[in-house]
Specification:
alpha+beta, 5 strands, Beta-Lactamase, 4 helices
């Protein structure tokens, strides 16, 4: 009977240690998730800010040309944007025609100029807000940020900016890897500490004969 009681007493600390380790792993997992989400939001805001600066440049061009009269001016702006910023994969200016079709009136991809877009490409104009859409094509991961282009305060077109998300994904993976390494070190230290304490307390649970 005494031996059975001793085994139970010795088992309790081990069970508590396992529970403690599970809690630690859960806390670290939650921390990795939350910090990764926070980092992604912060980087996404940088992408959005960049898109807004591009829209400002387009709006300035529209103002200088008193409207959409000189499409060649927009085309030069879009071509220059892609040359200046390697993260920008493509920029397209969408307009809705009277017959309801959405057409690319200018694009850094010259093959797409005057070709039809989709109703989605007009969302920024219709909703008067920025639209964020991430897409995967093969191994490539990019985002299309659609923003309304305004003339005299009214949304008249949509500007679609395709940007490479690989730098963002790499930054998040490196962050997760750092947290994972720190987590492993902390858990290893806790395990060593618990084993050390268990060894010191082990003689106390041995019943005298």
């Amino acid at each position: 009977m005494g031996n059975s009681k001793a085994k139970v007493e010795k088992g309790c600390p081990i069970n508590l240690n396992v529970i403690l380790l599970i809690i630690l792993l859960g806390v670290f997992s939650l921390y990795v998730y939350l910090t990764s989400q926070t980092l992604a939001i912060a980087v996404n805001e940088q992408y959005t800010a960049r898109a807004l600066s591009i829209v400002s440049a387009i709006n300035a061009t529209i103002y200088d040309n008193e409207g959409f009269g000189k499409k060649s001016s927009f085309q030069r702006v879009l071509d220059n944007l892609v040359k200046i910023d390697p993260q920008i994969k493509k920029v397209s200016l969408y307009m809705a025609l009277d017959d309801g079709r959405v057409v690319r009136v200018a694009s850094s991809n010259h093959k797409e100029i005057n070709k039809e877009g989709s109703n989605y490409d007009e969302l920024a104009t219709l909703n008067r807000r920025i639209v964020w859409e991430e897409e995967y094509k093969g191994n490539e991961h990019f985002v299309e940020v659609l923003a309304p282009v305004r003339i005299k305060g009214g949304a008249k077109a949509s500007l679609g900016i395709y940007m490479d998300l690989t730098p963002r994904d790499t930054q998040i993976r490196h962050h997760q890897l750092r947290i994972l390494v720190y987590s492993v070190l902390v858990v290893a230290a806790v395990i060593i500490l618990l084993i050390s304490r268990a060894k010191k307390s082990f003689p106390r649970h041995v019943n005298p004969k």
